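thread from #wetlab-drylab

HS: before we spend reagent money on co-crystallization trials with GBH, can we at least see a predicted complex? here's what I'd submit
DV: go for it
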Amino acid sequence: MSDFTFPKGFIWSCATASAQIEGAWNEDGKGLSIWDTYCHTPGKIVDGSTCDVACDSYHLYEEDVALLKGLGVQQYRFSIAWARILPTGTVDVVNQKGVDYYHKLIDALIASGIEPVITLYHWDLPQSLQDLGGWLNRQIVDWFAEYARFCFKNFGTTAKIWITLNEPWVASWYGYAGDAKSHAPGGFQQHTPWAPYLCAHHMLLSHAAAYRIYEREFKNEQNGKCGISLNCHWKEPATSDPDDQAAARRAFEMQLGWFANAIFSKEGDYPLLMREHMAELSKQEGRATSRLPKFTQQEIQSLKGSADFFGLNYYMAHMVKSQKWSESTPNSCQRLRDGGYVEFFDPHWEQIGGKQSWIRNTPWGLRNVLNFVKNEYNNVPLLITENGCCNERYDGLEDHQRIKYVGDHLKAVSQAINTDGCNVIGYTVWSLVDNFEWAEGYTLLFGIHSVDFDDPKRPRRPKLSASWYKQCIEANAVVEAPQASPKTHV
Ligand code: GBH
């Protein structure tokens, strides 16, 4: 019997996202997304690849569902490509073939006894909305609300679990900071240091608008739940120096608190610490107002409590050290300059997934984040909506490192629940299949099933972790890892 068990009813799941798996980028009336534009721009994706075909899940979704059924998961988290169902972003044009695709996927899942968990926005904004300013145009709150209503209305009779946004922190910094050009829409020279905060502000308001629509117009009848997925690195103070301790706390508030405080805290709004920090910084910069936008009282009320569960994406810990940046400091980026700290890896942390990988095996950080959420946000039900690690292309199927990483993190989750009393309701591994890893193209692969991207048929094959994960699901516990064969190096 395993020492690391889970409560009865614990949810096991796998996740993907539309732009990363679907392909069929210009088929059957789909509109362009900002990732179509971005990956077709030379120099943006490290291996020069695109998401044109990816895993071809638009055509092969039945194979994906078969893999899920084989694993025995209770849920599958996937996202809707906004531009596949509304090619111009608004309800003026509806692409029925796109709508049909998601109906087929949802029906196939339900027929296999798997509950769909739908992310409305996993970064693939319709290009036509980007052309109007994207997340920097306040009008997007209405566009997103309209899109969300369309989805609830069309799919909500069968799909019951909704996630409005995936990782708004990543979308804001990687997409909208003038000096972080690694995600779409990216590379906008005209972006000012206001942009990430404006993007985040509009994302939060869009989230609240969608949640309230669900609550008012659909919840009674459809009986589902709606939440949001936030990512957070655990922030470990680099030393016991009070400045570093304060920097770690500030880093936490400026990553997780930035989004979670408005939704999950008693008082609502952005964290006080972040408001004060940004007001002071903006003053020093000679500005008349803070770069952090202000909510009205009404907006604060609408955001407060606007989630039925807390979706957490966790990958690893960071060390944090206080740092006063100046314009001339080399290698600084706006995010760290604004925060007044540096973030880095402890060289002792185990690197997972090859030399290019940013993943370190720090499961204790997950347990800490879970406890942080429990303490700060009233032990709200928490669904781990992503956790996983990468391997390099052509690494083969014996992914012992992934089994170690996922196993260690599952153990931390089990302890957080059974020892610390954290209200964790489920665990989702990223990802079901190898897929398009954004700016990293196909160089870092996160699947528990491999996909052969050299073969036009995109065959899927289980990695060793898939059969091990299946056993964990069956046992509702962390089961022993298989022995590595002598020739194994992954
Ligand atoms: C998640 O976030 C995404 O939701 C998912 O789509 C993705 O495939 C998955 O994680 C795996 O990456 O500057 O050292 O952090 C990913 C957020 C942002 C993580 C960019 C990697 C670059 C390296 N990613 N980041 S680092």
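DV: The radius of gyration is 21 Å.
HS: ok that's useful, forwarding to the group
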